[in-house]
Here is the input.
Amino acid sequence: VVTRFATRILEGRIFGFAHDPEMEDLHEYLLLTALCDMGQGSSWLDNAPDPDSKIRLILNEDRCPVSILFNLRSLRGSAHAVREKWSRASILAIESIWEGWTKGTSGISDLHDYHDQLEETQLRLSAFFGLNFDTMTRDSAWALLEAGRRIERSVNIVNLLAFILKQESGHIIEQLLGE
Here is the structure.
């Protein structure tokens, strides 16, 4: 979710969010706020002085619970804690995701330069998910994991819709929901 939101925010800055130029800033604000609200990172967002700082938090702040770096570090740490349970291919995929993000983003100063790295990270995460989803034994543990994934997805959708619907933005909400 975080990489998709961050990619969308940067694409909005590069290509524009919508046909209505007046809503560009509001659209970006709503995406940033929704992401932080969904991930319990709103206190981080409140402390950031401007939109660029907020985006930088989401991209590479290792203590912010909604940041990509924080979540990739957590994935890597969890995998290493039970390394003997993972296949070698899974560990290599996780390391590839981690190394790709940390090395690929080091030294980036212009936010637009994160776009390609975000897309590459999304591709690596999707490949990792596919590798594990397709090779996992469909037993009771799989059913529990699948249920957890569906619950998490449902919670995210409900939280996002609840956030969007409480905004007072009229026609903008229609465009955001369409997205």
